Amino acid sequence: MTSSAPASDSPVLAAARRAREAAAALAPLPRTVRDRALLAIADALEARAAEVVEANAADVARARAAGTSETVIDRLTLTRERVAAIASDVRDVVALPDPVGEVVRGSTLPNGLELRQVRVPLGVVGIIYEGRPNVTVDAAALCLKSGNAALLRGSSSAYASNEALVGVLRDAVAGAGLPADAVQLVPGESRESVHELMRARGLVDVLIPRGGASLIRTVVTESTVPVIETGTGNCHVYVDELADLDMAVELLVNSKAQRPGVCNAAETVLVHAGVADRFLPLALAALTAAGVTVHGDEAWQKAGAGAGVRVEPATDVDWETEYLSYDIAAAVVPDLDAAVAHIRRWTSGHTEAIVTRDTAAARRFVSLMDSAAVMVNASTRFTDGARFGFGAEIGISTQKLHARGPMGLPELTTTRYVITGEGHTVE
Amino acid sequence: MTSSAPASDSPVLAAARRAREAAAALAPLPRTVRDRALLAIADALEARAAEVVEANAADVARARAAGTSETVIDRLTLTRERVAAIASDVRDVVALPDPVGEVVRGSTLPNGLELRQVRVPLGVVGIIYEGRPNVTVDAAALCLKSGNAALLRGSSSAYASNEALVGVLRDAVAGAGLPADAVQLVPGESRESVHELMRARGLVDVLIPRGGASLIRTVVTESTVPVIETGTGNCHVYVDELADLDMAVELLVNSKAQRPGVCNAAETVLVHAGVADRFLPLALAALTAAGVTVHGDEAWQKAGAGAGVRVEPATDVDWETEYLSYDIAAAVVPDLDAAVAHIRRWTSGHTEAIVTRDTAAARRFVSLMDSAAVMVNASTRFTDGARFGFGAEIGISTQKLHARGPMGLPELTTTRYVITGEGHTVE
Lengths: 427, 427
Known about the structure:
Helix content of chain A is 44%, strand content 20%.
């Protein structure tokens, strides 16, 4: 934590240092003060929506001129209505329970010392994300609610929008009596600014990359700042020998096709050999009707031929691919343990589901999985902070340390031991 | 987690891969099976103490021939009594509560889905440590108790001892029906084996370096495997204006001199200017009597001159040094906030103490610290898993993610969400 300010500080490091100062000022503030700042943010977003929308229009025009796809442009675009919705989301964050100050455990030791493990803010949270400007406000709001300073590094494609939004946020935060540097946009649009952020160990307490697999891989392998890995989801649905087959078809289609572009969508279905003859034709019909292309092993290809449905031959590439599209890999396995072995070999550790009426099979499957979430007779799509009832989500962690699965406000904190005595010494 | 076995696996990676297989086998085992293996280890250590002591004698002879200091040789040495004590420690671990399977939180969602967050083992835990062979058994026992496979990389100076100990452990584990590869010594005595371990991302779930600051710095900056940083303790004692000065002297001497070579010993004392005139002579007398050399600012030097005690002039090097010896840095500060600023600037984030009778000062000090533990009127030396009542300790984390402060068995686990429904789909 030794952090003297060298004269050679780059703009990114200087911003990180200011964030660290702001975090020190935020840490002791009670909830009411932080909530007041969040409400000021919501009000300011509504009052200054016009300037945000105008700045955004410049980003959108640039993106359009560069031939960006309409899907991406839609994610980038802010309207007055969308800004109002973002402000409303901030008000929802205000209403969430305060994670800071929670006593996680506590006891009075035999010698009379009072021991408390208390939740405290992490400090400076760096977030690296792609071209959705709403994330700028969501992430800042969750950081402030949990007492952290936010260092935001959005996509350069949304730089004008993010500058306008962060300007509004900083004014509101300062107006509420908090340091404006509690919310900062990482200066610069170049890749180099991301690299500097990754090397700001001792100034930035954690980096959360949100976005594509290659961004996340880069941050995880190159950062000296601790990282929370998010997002990649090569999720599996296993249909057991004792599955209710109608339920299995419904869960499979929902897991794959309800919204295929998200990390909790299913990418592979595995079917117990004992029900393959009955299940594969049902599944092929339903998946085809939902517009899904199946990439299957020999059993699925044969079933496809029987049903008059084209099944693409699957290779190892299919087992490891997160399609994020109307595609699914499919195999028949001899038994539950073979399904487990397949999943452990290929999963990204996000979410796996079993469909079964057999309590022993469900129990065994759950105990052998090494993933953040395991569904028993439920869609993989449920792995989500909002659906879990957390009220907010900063991302879905696929790592094991610190946070695993959907991350709410408590995952943006650490703890501190506070020990109170009256002159206690050790012997 | 994609981990096919390339033909080119080095011995270290091959060991990591076997550990991963063993971890998969360990994960679903209930407590009784794991406890049985631990009891078998304790019995085997006693039964085979002679061969352990013999192997250790070779290490000790080598160390002595190399001119190793007697302190280090003492840490390295195993006797029959010491092996019996290690076996007894293993039996203590058996008696600890099982962290695996604990439901951390749970609820029934509005749609009827049952949500449970359950503690599960991390998987493969790598531990890098120095020349104390008892750590080999302690670490293996804590890993097994928490359902993890242990990859142990001790000092090359204890290689023969560790090989003998791990041989005993593996036989006992296998005899109890668990995979022997749940406990492995990392093959090879070279530095390269540490580097390979640090690059085994996807096979090793966490690395815990225990030892000197330079080892820990290397692992933290070079490892692609997630690391839990342990140990460095530049701990502070702040004597407030409203301190009970007799209590302050006693706490200061206990914090510094009760055992100066450990991470929770105090390294700097800061004194409020309002009590400096009265406190410094008392402290100098007591510290001198305890054999402690003071490295002080001008006020301390002046007080030293008045008391006839030599006070070395302190520089920035003293503020940042973890002496681990009978030395302490000392300064007078104008007020509590100046003490806070000094500590935040120089601390390693381990433990800080305030001595005060003023509730407001205690509250402000606690809220402004950014360290793993804060003591109010208690010795810094209390930051310790055993003293906290955790029953066992794998290390003391000075980082914020995952674990902070003394790490017991729960810190060797992660969690998994288990969601149970009856065909639930998202809309």
